[in-house]
Each structure stands twice: as C-alpha cells, then as structure tokens.
Amino acid sequence: MTDVVIFSPTKSVISADELYARIEALTYSGREPLNASIIDFLDLLSKKFLRSPLARNNPQITALGFWLRKAATKKIRNNFLSRQPENTLLTPRGIAFHLPPANVDTLFVYSWALAFLAGNVNIVRLPAKPSEVAQYLIESIIEVLVDFGDDKRHIFCSYDYDNDINASISRHSDLRMIWGGDDKVNMLSKLPLRPDGLSLGFPDRYSYSVISGNAYSECDDRTQNILVENFYNDLFWFDQMGCGSPRVLYWLGNDDERITDFSKKLSAKALSKGYEPDTSVVINKFTFMNDMLAKNIALSGTAYSNALHILDANVGIDLRNIAPGGGMLTVVKISSLDEIGKMAQRKDQTVTHFGFSRNELISFAGSIVGRGGYRIVPIGQALNFGPIWDGLDLLTDMTRKIVVID
Question: Assuming Cys at both sites, which of 204, 250, 273, 349 could form a disulfide with 210, CB separation 3.0 to 4.6 Å?
C-alpha cells in the first residue's frame, strides 16, 4: 500500500490506513465560521510571510501576505455576512479535501485559508517535492498552527497519485476542491464524496488583456511605466502558467508604433527584474512562433528577448489554448470591444483592462454573459485571488446554513 508523507514539525511517513484514521477523527471537529481567532491566526501568518527574506525575490509571497491581513479577511467576512438571510446560523461544511495544482505554488494556501476561515477542517494533498516557495509556506503554516494549538485539525500530506487514496479521502469528505486541468478534474470528480458532499472543479482556464491605445498614448511616462510593471506581474508570475495570466493582448486601435513601444518596455522590465526562462522554454517559444508564421496563422513575430516573444495576429485567430507560457504573447489589434465578445469561450476566466470607462466595461461584460469570462479587473490584478472565483461564491459553498425560527 502507498505510504503517505505527513508534513508536520517532524516530517513523518504513515500508512494510508493511519491517514484514514486521522481523517475519521476530524469529523465534527470544525469551528465557528469567520470567528475572530481564525482571523487572528491568518493575520499572524500574514506578518510572517511579509517579513520573510524569501518574499524579496518571490512577490507571490508578498501578495499572499497582503491577502491574509486582518483588514483583508475582515472585509471578506463582513461582505459575506451582509449577504446572509435572516434566521440562519452558519456552520462549517465539515472536512474539506484540497487538490491544488503543482505549477502555482501559492494556490494551496488560498484554498486552505478560505476553507479554514469558513470553519472547516482540512486535508491538503501537496507535491512530493514542493518548490522552495511551497516548502517555506508549508513549514510556516504548520509552525503557526502548532503555536495556536490548531495543528490537529489540518493535514498536509503527499502521496503517489493513487486513486485508491483519493477515493478513500473523498468518501470521508464533505467538500472537495479540485484545482488543475480538465483531465484531473474529470478523473477526480468521478470519485464519490459523502452522500451530502460537494465537489468543486476548477479546470483549464485561459485569460487575456485589453488595452486602449489612445489611453496609453495619453499617459505620461510614469503612468506608462506603472502599467508595464503591472502587466509584467500578470504575465510573468508563475511563468505565465497561472489561469489568470494573459495569453493574448487585444489592443484597441491600429497603431503599431504604440504596440512596439509597450512591447519594448515590457521586455526591458522583464530583464530588469531578472526574469530568465529556461533554455527549453525559450526554444519552445521560438519553435511555436515560427510554426505559426510558417502556417500563416500569425502575421509576424518578434523575439524582443529570451523573456518575451510576441506574435501579431488577425482578429479571429485564437492561440490562447495552444500557446506556451514563459513569455509568449499574441497581440491582436481590434477596433471595438465587441470584437472580443464574439470570440468569448467557456474556458475564459480573467479579462484585465486599461483605459476603459465603467460603462464600457459593463457593456463588454454583457456581451460575454454565458459565453465565457468570470473576472474583469484592472491590469495588475490578474492573479489576485478572491472569495468569488470562476463564478462561484466559495464561502457559500464552504459553509452550511441552519434555519432557526422561533
């Protein structure tokens, strides 16, 4: 039988049966949702992340730290409570089973923290060999859990991808969070939960950006540089593999000079940040770019640096599902936002924008309703996690309601 690695102050290996016994003991051991002690715990964790020397070169740790601050979690709590019907009492859903992706090393913390905020106990399956960032996050969480005396309610573990173990944990679970590609979601969604359990799948998603060329040209150098910095964060964190990372940039206006200016500044920003993709990624981008040109799918291509390759394509060409990450961007010139709405797909997730009014954005949102796209946010916020994700109100799904009428 497959061994299970338990991440704890003293890393240990146990049998699958021992794991199931621990999970069984967690039943009915949840806490009051959104209570002050959980918020205090997350705030302490936030301070630890924000002070970490590792955060200097890994801005995703800083972003996570800001998200966990007391002010931020209180805002989440108050917003959620303001939407609850009268005569109801919130309770945790129960045992939450998290299956995060391996390529976004902070996502497991967001998933776990929100479920913890909802009062649930948690089982989190982690990669056998976590990245340096993920390893630091795991160790920090466990350290603070032990200090709070709350470590027994949370199991962070790793095991070979064994569907017998996934099936057994699922049968104990009230909530399952599957983060990953379509194949992973389809495979794991077939495994039954408790009869009244809920499984949430977060499959393949693709995202894009839209910039108004006129708005860009009217900005001073400082504003343009801030925009480039924000776009850099959206594009290059997680090597462009995050579901919110843009794959396509739609540029409103037919001005190649402005696009070239933006592209050069973006490439320079990547170089100044020290972003250097692996040689295999650079070769893959170069091969992909030339393949698209040879097939007349793209009009032109430019390698601004090892960090940034850009393809110029016509409206109607959709490369977001097949383009590699690591700084491969397709630029498409458009004459109106309506042209994007016609190309919306169910797999679209985040649309980042610059230079548009609220009325224009609301009109655009109406054009993609039911077709694709779940977040329309300013450039720089593509990877900001929120309690509403992929169109789902996660805290609602992570809690139950007891109706009390006197």
Answer: 250
